Give the backbone structure.
Amino acid sequence: MSAPLRTHPVSMWLLVACGVWLVSLGLYFIFLRPPLLPEDTRFMGSSLEQVRTAIPGLEGWLKRVFIVMGGFMAGSGVLTIFAARVAIPSRLKGASWAIAMSGLLTVALMSAINFSLHSDFRWVLLFPVMTWLAGFVLYVARR
C-alpha cells in the first residue's frame, strides 16, 4: 500500500493562515468589537445618538450577537486549521469541496458584503479571501 499523496505545503499553510485569521477575527468580535462602528451608523444614515434614542437596548443586544457570531467565526477557523493540517495533506475525499464551501461561506461572503456596504475595512478583508483562494487553487492544481 502506498503512502497518501502529499499536497503542496504552500496550499496547506495558506489555508492554515486563513484559519488563524478566522480565529483571530472571532476573538476580536467576542472581546473587542464595539456594538456599532462609525460605518454602521453612516450606512443607516443616522448618528449614534439617534440610534441610542430610537432603540435604547440595541447596543447591549448587538454585543451578545457579536459574541455568538465571534464564537462561530473562531470555531470555523479551528475547523479550517484542522482541515488544512489533516485533510489537505492526506488528500481526504471531500476535502476540496469542504474547503471550497467553507471559504465561500466565510471569508468570501464576508468580503463581498463588506464591499456592498462600502465598509472602511473592505480592502483589508480581501487579504483573507485571496489567501484562501490561493491555498484552494494550489491544492486543486496538485490533483
In short: The chain has a mean pLDDT of 93.
